[in-house]
């Protein structure tokens, strides 16, 4: 019996051949300068044809708090909300990804729950994944954000 338990324990730890990291996978950038990043984003967005690679390089290499700081500086610099600028400059999956990165985990989960229940039918897979993988505290926070949000969660 102990052998079976040990084997099952190893299976769950090595799902997909890799052990899930027990530490954050997105860490704060060491050379972080929100003014420089905001200026680079502004240039990338205003470039003819949009410099998507610069946007990807900046937003995917910063943690959530750094992205929020960049958004604050961007708004001051460009006199426009960064999420609105990204929405206007990008499209398709890249737009969805970059806008998702600008949301907190709770905001993202709330928007995904809303999207999974919108329209005809329900995306049960997304619904189950979010509801079953969050703690009671996280679900309470998601519920609060879902109910209280006055902004468009699908931005």
From TrEMBL:
SMART domains: ANX. GO terms for molecular function: calcium ion binding; calcium-dependent phospholipid binding; phosphatidylserine binding. InterPro entries: Annexin, Annexin_repeat, Annexin_repeat_CS, Annexin_sf. Keywords: Annexin, Calcium, Calcium/phospholipid-binding, Repeat. One of its GO terms (cellular component) is vesicle membrane. PROSITE patterns: ANNEXIN_1, ANNEXIN_2. Belongs to the annexin family. A pair of annexin repeats may form one binding site for calcium and phospholipid. This is Annexin. It comes from Larimichthys crocea (Large yellow croaker).
